[in-house]
Design brief:
- The protein is 41% helix and 12% strand.
- The chain is α/β, with parallel strands linked by helices and 689 residues long.
- Helix 9 links the parallel strand 6 and strand 7.
- The relative contact order is 0.09.
- The structure holds thiamine diphosphate (TPP).
Length: 689
């Protein structure tokens, strides 16, 4: 136990910005010990979990939740609540205990007793959407911190748009050594420092212990200096001294930069032999150790029993922001109806349906009137020119590839530390931090973020994309230079396995449009997918516009559709079905012509989205896949995943090695992704060569 720690220390007098502590005589230590007891007892009962962090961070959390955090357990979705992110998600019992103690209805003592079992809302790591009051799913270290940066950006942007009258809250993070060791943390803190996100406050659980033992085994970073170097205000305090915690939080309330408070704590605080050791990190303490901890903490109560006076003090803390919430409701109600409805619409995540439909229609009409032979990345910019004014909630960006990704339209202003109303974020070369910040923006609400990078760098942000899919979040990643078609940059920049790898993530939509019309249709589908993230894989090279007539319907919605019918054959009677995506669809159409010259009737199916096709009802799926004796898949990428469409006996024309550096037309020839190769493969299969 820390020398300065005192299990009976009382809360310091209320400071200037802090809201009053619960009106009770219960000492701070008893309230913090309630967290410790619940954590050690729940982990013991589950025979699994992490008691060390909740026991160590209990003092910090108690001061934050009883005196600073603006929240209302009766309305976990209150738009202007402070956000609290437990980035060190393995310490989930800290958060579950806080939710129970402060009175979130769904978090009953029974849920705590069934920690980590199948069914209850107390999963191993906190999950967004699974448990009311959980702001984000954490587990992979560093993600929560980067999510919080996105939440803080969202707050600043919405405050700039709607006024601090309506949007004025803080984002608090509890981060551990592991969070700060992960590379993503550097991207996140650099971006936050650059943007001077002054309402972001990180409480670092500075316990010097990780799983392998003392942090000194692997780390010697001075975190205070590191954060200061990134433009933060940083300080070090005793994380078991409630007065010091309150004073630091108090100071943070009026900071002009993001704030790091490194709170020196003892992991497993109170445990007689395991405190301060990695043995307290991630396993039950055991009956003897728990008995010893109860003694040291002066906690005489039975497991899961919180004495009425302590519980009622905690519940009172949960009521602290009632007035602030009621005042905010009144301010919202006093707004003029149009502004209120717009704010509420955005926070619900509803699209402006008519405006979106009109924007998509305008793009499609324009493309029908004057077809464009352009790259799909350019088509994306063309679509965005209409979408951005129609959907004010869209915030774009790029990881330092703005000119290549075409994600910034001419009218978009960049967001900066002095002007948060801008709708384009220069994320810097920080793909992982970008994707995680985007998750945070969506979780905050009121924003639909989209990004830009090269498809090959999806590897650099995959963990955040996976979490967006797990959480069911609408974030849209524009990923250009989507194949060997990028040409001379060579194999390091040419994605080959990335489409397959992204398609393997459940709940993610991977779009690969074949022309300008499909590009705007895919954008529409990505925006409509309220609970799914999307990737738009777009080309660097120009492509012909295959659909030249205006069609009101969105053909990509089916995931696949026949873009060129077999000559002279009834539907479903083709000799060959060629399935292709993106830039390979026009190549497939050329192959169909070659086959026609040889008397072979081939049809071409464009497959802009595997997931939508494979999720379609069986009859619809069978209708579009058809029963041609020869099925060929064409994609300048690996075959993995294609068997679901062409069958294991199907023929695949694509890549089975990395790319090479050359002008893209030569590369297509070199790797055999060509109309001739497709036609030859079909003829061979038909026995016609
Ligand atoms: C990306 C990632 N890598 C590894 C882990 C597994 N893991 C969980 S906690 C932890 C480190 C624990 O040290 P610290 O973050 O200081 O937490 P504390 O011991 O203080 O609870 C690790 C490696 C993880 N959750 N996420």
């Amino acid at each position: 136990m820390s020398a300065k720690a005192s299990p009976t220390a009382a809360v310091a007098p209320t400071a200037r910005h802090a809201q009053p502590a619960a009106a009770s005589a219960v000492a701070h230590a008893s309230m913090a010990n309630a967290i410790r007891a619940l954590a050690m007892d729940a982990v013991e009962q589950a025979k699994s979990g992490h008691p060390g962090l909740p026991m160590g961070a209990a003092d910090v959390a108690t001061v934050l939740f009883t005196r600073f955090l603006k929240f209302d357990p009766a309305d976990p979705a209150w738009a202007d609540r402070d956000r609290f992110v437990l980035s060190a998600g393995h310490g989930s019992m800290l958060l579950y205990a806080l939710l129970y103690l402060t009175g979130y209805k769904a978090m009953t003592i029974d849920q705590i007793k069934r920690f980590r079992q199948l069914g209850p809302i107390t999963a191993g790591h906190p999950e967004y959407g699974h448990t009311p009051g959980i702001e984000t799913t954490t587990g992979p270290l560093g993600q929560g911190l980067a999510n919080a940066v996105g939440m803080a950006i969202a707050e600043r942007h919405l405050a700039a748009v709607f006024g601090s009258y309506l949007v004025d809250h803080k984002t608090y993070v509890l981060a551990s050594d592991g969070d700060l060791m992960e590379g993503i943390s550097q991207e996140a803190i650099a971006l936050a420092g650059h943007l001077k996100l002054s309402k972001l406050i990180v409480l670092f659980d500075d316990n010097g212990i990780s799983i392998d033992g003392a942090l000194s085994l692997s780390d010697s970073v001075d975190q205070v200096k590191r954060f200061e170097a990134a433009g933060w205000t940083a300080s070090r305090i005793d994380g078991h001294d409630p007065a010091a915690i309150a004073a630091a939080l108090e100071k943070a309330q009026s900071a002009e930069r993001p704030v790091l408070i490194a709170c020196k704590t003892t992991i497993g605080f109170g445990a007689p032999t395991k405190a301060g050791k990695s043995s307290a990190h991630g396993s039950p303490l055991g009956a003897d150790e728990i008995a010893g901890a109860r003694k040291a903490l002066g906690w005489t109560h039975a497991p899961f029993e919180i004495p009425a006076d302590i519980l009622s003090s905690w519940r009172a803390a949960g009521q602290r922001s009632k007035t602030a919430h009621a005042d905010w409701n009144n301010r919202l109600a006093a707004l003029d109806a149009a502004q209120r409805q717009e704010f509420e619409r955005r926070m619900r995540g509803d699209l402006p349906k008519q405006a979106l439909a009109d924007a998509v229609r305008a793009v499609k009409e324009s493309l029908a009137a004057a077809p464009k032979e352009i790259a799909t990345r350019t088509a994306c910019e063309f679509a965005l020119e209409s979408l951005i004014p129609a959907l004010p909630e869209m915030i774009g960006g790029s990881a330092d590839l703005t000119g290549s990704n075409n994600t910034r339209t001419k009218l978009m202003k960049a967001m900066s530390a002095t002007d948060f109303s801008g709708r384009f974020i220069h994320y810097g070369v920080r793909e992982h931090g970008m994707a995680a910040a985007m998750n945070g923006m969506t979780l905050h609400g009121g924003i639909i973020p989209y990004s830009g990078t090269f498809l090959v760098f999806s590897d650099y942000c995959r963990p955040a994309i996976r979490l967006a899919a797990l959480m069911g979040e609408r974030v849209i990643h524009v990923m250009t230079h989507d194949s060997i078609g990028l040409g001379e940059d060579g194999p390091t920049h040419q994605p080959v396995e990335h489409l397959a790898a992204l398609r393997a993530i459940p709940n993610l939509l991977v779009f690969r449009p074949c022309d300008a019309v499909e590009t705007v249709e895919c954008w529409q589908l990505a925006l409509d997918a309220r609970e799914r993230p999307s990737v738009l894989a777009l080309t660097r090279q120009n492509l012909p516009q295959l659909s030249q007539n205006f069609l009101g319907i969105n053909r990509c919605a089916a995931g696949a559709y026949e873009i060129a019918a077999a000559d002279g054959k009834a539907q479903g009677k083709a000799d060959v079905s060629i399935f292709a995506t993106g830039s390979e669809v026009s190549i497939a159409v050329d192959a169909k012509k070659l086959l026609s010259q040889r008397g072979v009737a081939a049809r071409v199916v464009s497959v802009p989205c595997f997931e939508l096709l494979l999720e379609a009802p069986e009859a619809a799926r069978h209708a579009v896949i058809g029963a041609a004796p020869v099925k060929i898949g064409v994609e300048a990428a690996v075959r993995q995943g294609w068997d679901a469409i062409i069958g294991s006996d199907g023929t695949f024309v694509g890549m089975n090695s990395f790319g090479a550096s050359a002008p893209y037309k030569e590369l297509y020839k070199h790797f055999g992704v060509s109309a001739e190769a497709i036609a030859d493969a079909a003829l061979r299969k038909l026995g016609k060569t």
